[in-house]
Every structure is written in C-alpha cells, then in structure tokens.
Amino acid sequence: MHKPYAGIAALLLALGGVSAASAAGLELRLEPASAKEFGSGKIVYSLSNTGTSTLHVLRWMTPLDGVSNNLFRVSQDGRAVAYTGRLVKRAAPTESDYLPLAPGQSISAEVDLTAYYDMRKGGQFGVTYNRDARQVVREAAEAARGGAAAAVLDFDMAQRGGVEVFADAAIDAFEEFAPKASTGVLAPTNTFVGCSTTRKNQIATARNSAVGYASNSANYLTANNTGSRYTWWFGSYNSTRYGTVRNQFNTIHSALSTQPFTFDCNCNSPGVYAYVNPNQPYTVTLCNAFWSAANTGTDSRAGTLVHEVSHFNVVAGTDDYAYGQADAHALALSSPSQAIHNADSHEYFAENTPPRN
Question: Does the chain have fewer CB atoms within 10 Å around its N or its C terminus?
Fold first, then answer.
C-alpha cells in the first residue's frame, strides 16, 4: 500500500475576509514508483488542490522541472544521505515562475533520487519533503509576510514519516564520491572554462570583492555585534545560532582567500546567477544573471560568489530555502534555524545593502 506523505495540508490563508471554512486545501504525496521500478530509487511526487481557490506553486521548489536544490530529506538507518545535485542561485521569483493549480487539479513528477543523493551503497531509504508551504505556495508566503503566519498551517506534520524506497547498489558503491577539498593554505588561483577575457577579468574582480565582503562579515561577527544587520537576515539573537553564523563566515572567508577555484562560463540559463555541486569544491558555474549584475551591491557578482561558496559542504553546507531579500527576511522572522543555513541570507548579510548596523 502506498503511504501518503502529507495527507491534507490545510493552508488557512488570511486573505481579505476569506474564512477558514473556505480556505484552500493542498494534498501532497510521496509514493514509490511502480512495482516494476523496484530497486530504482524512484519516487512519484504529486500535489493536488483539494480546495476551492486557485493556488500558485513555485516550480523550482518542486521537482516538476527536475531537481535544482535539496528538495528532499533522504536517510538510511537514521543517518542523512548527502545531496549531490546542483544548488542554484536564482533571482527572486516572478509571476512566470509560478504554476497555477486550479481547484481539483493535480500535478506530479517522477524523481530518480539516485541522480541527486548519494544512495550508491543501496538498501532501504526514508524520504521526506524538505520544504514547507511558505516556500512552495505563493499564497502561504504572502500570508506569512502579512503577519498572518499563525493562520497558515504547514503540510500536515503528523504525516512527515514520508515514504520508504529501495535502491540497488551502484557499481561505484565503494569508491570515493568526489575529491575532498585540500587542507592547508593554497594559492587563491582562478582557473577558467569557456570564459572570454572580459569575463575572466570580471570574475577576478568579483572574487576580490567577495573576499572583502566575507572579511567584513567575519569581523562584524567576531566583534559579537548583534545589531539589525544580524537580526534582519538571521533572526532573533541566540548564542548557538550566532556562533554557527560566525564560524560559517570565517570558513567562507578562508575559502575565498586561500583556495584554488574553477569558474565555468558555459551556462546560458535565464534568471539563474550560478550553481555549484556542494560536494565538488571549488567549482562554480556562472550563468546569465551573473553577467548582468553589478560587481557589488544587492544580488551582485561578489555577493553571488559568497552565496555559492557557502553551499560547499566543506565550507558551510547551506541550502536554498528562500530567494530574494523579501523572502530571506521573512525566513529570518519565521524560522531563524533555517535562515542561518540559507545561502541568500548569507549573501545579503555580506552585501549589507542597504547598510544596517
């Protein structure tokens, strides 16, 4: 019997007089693929609008167009399995990034988890969804930003047991997955793939500025400042969370200022700044939005490098829970524990535009 992942998620949206009785409902399921796919590590992800109002789903927070960030929690014997896919920095979502989901409509996608998670040793794996309603559904995010967060119920927490899936062992099951980052201080060199001379110079300038951003951030945190610059992006002060962010920026600064990087310019994706594979330091692929950005300032080239470097597991291992300043700030208010692991939050703290104390 297929086990539903999230039952009915009652999103009680405080939208201009809409009562709880007429609020939208959203059913989310994770199910194993068909029996003939047993051992493939594949699941089927589906969303169904069980309410009476159209909802808008942020496509790249779902696997509908493939997996471009850490959308699932995959574990084996109680231990998390490493995400090995891309982590992509995008511009803040626009209307075209949302998929309307009409009442009674369902959408689904088959996901081969073995393509994105290190499941090479095979066996039984537990899978849950790694996003909440505010990150997936526009109406939930808008209600939260409007101060109605308490009226928004997330996907049914009682059903977060998720789904069990079996994966066969891969031929490379006992090989090292990827080279580890070198230890010690190395030359901060830049290697380029498919980059013009102009772009090489822009990258070098951006990296130098990123080192400055990371240094300034680390110094701010080392001095134990707890002003609005910190709380705006990472939420209320807590000594443990604060210490985590301080350590992250020390490591980000160290990586940017000492490690050899490879920059790949062979990406033409619109609306995408850059992406990395978190287990492959220090290679960064740069895309269209990176080249149209300013060197410094909000969503800058230098800030993008801080964002991407923070993703590497040997650096800070951040995720992409929220994109854009508005959603990153909302995340700090609603979930500081996620904000301190959100790459855009680190970027905006480093860019500090507009400046905060």
Answer: N
